[in-house]
Amino acid sequence: xxxxxxxxxxxxDALLKNETTDWQEVLSTVISAFDCTTGTIHFLxxxxxxxxxxxxxxxxxFLIPKLSEIPIGKxxxxxAAERREPVEMCNxxxxxxxxxxxxxxxxxxxxxxxxxxxxxxxxxxxxxxxKPVPYDFTKEExxxxxxxxxxxxxxxxx
Length: 158
Description:
InterPro entries: GAF, GAF-like_dom_sf. Residues 24-152 form the GAF domain. Pfam families: GAF_2. It comes from Arenibacter echinorum. It is a single chain. The chain has helices at residues 3-17, 23-33, 64-68, 75-83, 139-157, and strands at 38-45, 50-57, 69-71, 87-89, 112-119, 122-130. By secondary structure, the protein is of the alpha+beta class. It has one domain (3-157): GAF domain (Beta-Lactamase, 2-Layer Sandwich). Strands 3-2-1-6-5-4 form a 6-stranded antiparallel sheet. Helix 1 packs antiparallel against helix 2 (23-33) and helix 1 (3-17) packs parallel to helix 5 (139-157). It is globular. The model has no long low-confidence stretch (mean pLDDT 87).
């Protein structure tokens, strides 16, 4: 783990130790730590089976209703939740795989990743971040994002 990773984890650990968690602050910290501009945290609502937004940053206001509740299997967050593995796009603007929903292009982001937040094999939600430029996240960054998701899951489950 390099210095950036250690620093990332230390700051996030400190935020998650607070008795009450400011999810917006956690998200802002994650976005900043990965040099991104946009992101979302969704928690899985076990009753409805939907991913419900807990925090968002850099999302155009007209898109908020579209991402407030996401079905498992729809869009990057929904597919990451369904597959229980990260879903990544180097350039969301030019992607034609059908993974990203058409409205997602309105975010104007390019390099993006959605990671499942898992703990002991159980899904708690998703964590998504993105950059305004084409970008492939490194294996180390993906691993760090999954670790952060695990820490968030631990906080949610406690």
